[in-house]
Structure formats: structure tokens, C-alpha cells
Amino acid sequence: MRTKLILTTVTLLIYLNSCTVMGTLHPLSENYDRYVFKKELIGNWIDPEDSTVRYYIDTLPHYGGKLYGITILDTSGDVPDTTLLSAYIINLNGSYFIDSWQNIPKDNRVYVVPRHFIMQLSFIDRDNIGFVYPNPEKLIKLIDRQKIQLKYSKVAVTSKDEDYEYLILDKPAVLQKALIEVMRYPDMYKIKFNIVRLQ
């Protein structure tokens, strides 16, 4: 069971790495009252640029229906790969952000620390949702120049020295403040993708 969990987590990280979404150690919010329910998110979705990846999103029976379950089905390989995530949405200064993570049983957290992946989202229309997130390299430059007040660490992905990712280490209040500050740099949000509703 633990081996399967670790393999699933590695698969998820590889998938998310392909999107270059920077992870955070802490959630964007621990205040459940700030979670937002958006019925527009619920449904079956597809990546219009890769029809082998589908997203099935529904609410989970926690926090008044403001917690979402996301099933990602990738049929590009010989064997379909399924990834299960939990997520919630909060509103920061009029913009919606989604925080998603893979749930890991507490007894397995010795082996794997769950990372949070935060993206800004927009409901373009009933059948189209857009996601955008900061360019990791540009964000690190702003942090190193002390224009954005965040702490980060490099995390090895493989044994090669050049294979690493950045992990933001700050707690929710600092993350929220930094996200608002990052929005002042429009060129930061150049990495975008969208999903469309399956008809």
C-alpha cells in the first residue's frame, strides 16, 4: 500500500511538473469560512489541447460542500493513470484562487509531505475555465531581489543536480499577501491553460 501511494504521488508530481506549477508546503488558507462554493467548477472537463486528459470535479462532504474532489484521468499511456486531489477556492481581492493537493493518510506522511498547488482561476463562461499561475523562475527572481517576501527551498526531483523544483515555505497569511503582491506584476502570469466542459 505504501509503495502504491509513493508511486501515485511521484506520478502526480511528474504531471504537475509538466505544468511547472510551483508547490507550497502550507495551504493558502486554514480558515474554512473563507472557502467559496462555485457550482461552475462541478462537472466533467477535458483539456482542449490534450484529449487524453480528463478532469472529473465534484464536491466532497466536508466544509458545507466547499471542498472539491478532483479526479484526473490520463489515458495517454498503455494503462490509464488516475490521480485524486482535494481542492478549495478562496477569493483574494476579487480574484479566485484554487488550492489543490493530494490527500495522504497521516501514517504515510513520514514518507511523503503533501504539497499544495495554487493557481488563479477564472470562469470564462459556463463551459470554459481558465487557470493561470506565476512563472516559477520569475517568481524566484522577485523573491531573491526581495520584491516579494517569501521563503523557498530547492527540492531534488531526481539524483541529477539540475533536476529540482522550488517549494514555498511560508504559512497562509504570508502566502495570501504575496499572491496579492505578485498580481502587480502582470508579466508573471503568462503560464495559462484551460479546461472545457464535456458535452
Number of structural units classed as domains:
1
Termini, distance in Å? Answer: 36 Å
In one word, what is the shape?
globular
Largest sheet: 8 strands, antiparallel, barrel
Helix percentage: 10-25%
Q: How many E strands?
A: 11
The whole-number mean of residue pLDDT values reads 85
| Spatial arrangement of strands, main beta sheet | 2-3-4-5-6-7-8-11
What structural class should be given to the helix and strand makeup? alpha+beta
Strand content: 35-45%
Order of helices and strands: HEEEEEEEEHEEHE
Q: Using the CA coordinates, give the radius of gyration.
A: 17 Å
Structural description of this entry:
With 199 residues, the chain is α+β, with helices and mostly antiparallel strands. It has one domain (2-197). The chain is 19% helix and 39% strand. The chain contains three helices and eleven strands, in the order H-E-E-E-E-E-E-E-E-H-E-E-H-E. The protein has helices at 2-19, 136-144, 172-182, and strands spanning 23-24, 43-47, 50-60, 67-74, 81-92, 95-101, 116-125, 128-133, 152-156, 164-168, 191-197. The protein has an eight-stranded antiparallel β-barrel. Strand 4 and strand 5 form a beta hairpin. The longest helix is centred in the first third of the chain and has 18 residues, at 2-19. Mean pLDDT is 85; it is low at 1-19.
What key attributes describe this structure?
alpha+beta, eight-stranded antiparallel barrel, 11 strands, 19% helix, globular
